[in-house]
Write a structure and sequence with these properties.
The complex is a heterodimer of chains A (162) and B (286). Chain A is α+β, with helices and mostly antiparallel strands. Chain A has five helices and five strands. The longest helix of chain B is centred in the C-terminal third of the chain and has 23 residues. The model of chain B has no long low-confidence stretch (mean pLDDT 96). The chains are: A alpha+beta (162), B alpha+beta (286). At the A-B interface, strand 4, helix 3 and helix 4 of A face helix 2 and helix 4 of B.
């Protein structure tokens, strides 16, 4: 067992973990943050996507012991003072979810892409979204939500907000 | 599934990492980006008893240009190459290739050196290394050696790298103002290539002075289309010449069939994608 200090959604957690346990397992089983979903466990479906130092990252392909000194954000850490993050709000407004299993992964993917990486146009957005799978196949409304969120975050960035 | 148990080592410098690999030779694996290794561990296709994590080592994540080469160190991520380091054709080609390696979350963590060490037959970086005659610099406690790309890839997921070695640098020659082409067909966006091709050509007064053509996804390792290249050199770059060379490239590969793709279809893709990559390269060179 190894002792690791994880910084998750701005809070420090000291956990004793076996090195083989992934960040996704520790978030869910040790910290009780069940919003991070585990689908394929080999990096294909994207359901476990979280932010590690701002970058969208597959939490099933990262061991928790690697995350000492990293800042992790999960779906639970997005809303501020009861207000949804613009990407969450956009998913609500555009019916961007059906069963909801893939939704946290899609939202974290988009937050990371829109806040830390350049996403120029709709084609770039489609490319970003192609990273994750929705087995309800609700991609049209997910893309619609992504477009709204991108427009809002870019307008916000122009005003120096967020 | 979950990986089998292992001891995790996170050395603070390269010598310590090399020492750990030597000590646990045959049982240890190097962890860089982990975007291929960790899935293999989750499936228990890989069951190392020791993992040597390079990510705590400073000074291993540089891209630099010098002595006619572009040098990529161990921890350079796919994403780091999306913005070209210079205006040289090599850097511009890397930028185009990097955008088709996996998806954004894979690209922010996965490394070029790791991709070469993994040696997936459809991997873009392995094909690029073969196309450009890259040199792979490998270090161990025994010393440093330089391995030519054409001797590095030995078979399916098999390389010349010894179990106690770490790739410290991937050195790619600068192509100057050569024209390049990169074409890929994959089942879905971000997926591994079914077949991919890279071409790099220079022209001298309308005559092909140098031609490189590499193919991934049509055999156990990426290959150079030697006969296609020699069919082009010292000739005018006409559509006919390009078509003849592309056909030769398709005749010379040895693809196999799998559940999704027949060998015949792969061979067809080689011809089409070789032609398109050569078209792009020769047009850019003129």
């Amino acid at each position: 067992m190894t002792s690791v200090t994880l910084s998750v959604n701005g809070r420090q957690h000291v956990v004793e973990v076996e090195p083989r346990r992934t960040l996704a397992d520790v978030l869910r089983d040790d910290l009780g943050l069940h919003g991070t979903h585990l689908g394929c466990e080999h990096g294909v479906c994207g359901a476990c996507t979280v932010l590690v130092d701002g970058d969208p990252t597959r939490a099933c392909l990262l061991f928790a012991v690697q995350c000492q000194d990293s800042s992790i954000t999960t779906i639970e850490g997005l809303s501020k003072d009861g207000a949804l993050h613009p990407v969450q709000q956009a998913f609500t407004d555009n019916f961007g979810l059906q069963c909801g299993f893939c939704t946290p992964g899609f939202i974290m993917l988009l937050v990371g892409a829109l806040e830390s990486h350049s996403v120029g146009n709709d084609e770039d957005l489609v490319e970003v979204l192609s990273s994750n799978l929705c087995r309800c196949t609700g991609y049209r409304s997910i893309l619609q939500a992504a477009k709204q969120a991108a427009a809002e975050l870019q307008a916000g960035a122009g005003k120096g907000a967020r | 599934m979950k990986p089998s148990p292992f001891d995790y080592l996170a050395p603070g410098d390269l010598d310590e990492a090399l020492g750990a690999l030597a000590e646990h030779e045959g049982e240890a694996k190097v962890l860089a980006g982990g975007q291929s290794l960790v899935p293999a561990m989750n499936f228990r296709l890989a069951t190392p008893s020791v993992l040597v994590d390079l990510n705590r080592i400073e000074g291993l994540a540089e891209v630099r240009v010098g002595d006619g080469e572009l040098v990529i160190q161990s921890l350079v991520r796919h994403r780091d190459l999306e913005i070209p380091a210079t205006e040289d054709a090599t850097a511009l080609l890397l930028a185009r290739v990097s955008r088709l390696v996996g998806h954004l979350p894979i690209r922010v963590r996965g490394t070029v050196a790791g991709s070469l060490a993994h040696a997936d037959p459809a991997a873009e970086w392995c094909m690029l290394a073969v196309a450009l005659d890259a040199t792979i610099v490998a270090r161990s406690v025994r010393g440093t050696r330089r391995i030519a790309a054409n001797e590095f890839f030995e078979g399916l997921f098999t390389t010349a790298l010894a179990e106690d070695e770490i790739i410290t640098e991937v050195r790619l020659p600068l192509l100057g103002n050569a024209g390049t082409g990169f074409r890929e067909k994959s089942q879905t966006a971000g997926d591994f290539a079914t077949v991919a091709t890279i071409a790099a050509c220079t022209l001298d007064d309308g005559i092909v002075a140098d031609a490189r053509l590499a193919i991934a996804g049509a055999g156990a390792t990426p290959v150079r289309a030697n006969r296609a290249e020699s069919l082009l050199v010292a000739r005018e770059a006409t559509p006919d010449a390009i078509a003849v060379a592309s056909r030769a490239a398709a005749e010379d590969v040895e693809p196999s069939s799998d559940a999704s793709t027949s060998a015949d279809y792969r061979r067809h893709l080689v011809e089409v994608l070789a032609r398109r990559a050569l078209d792009d390269a020769l047009e850019a060179a003129s």
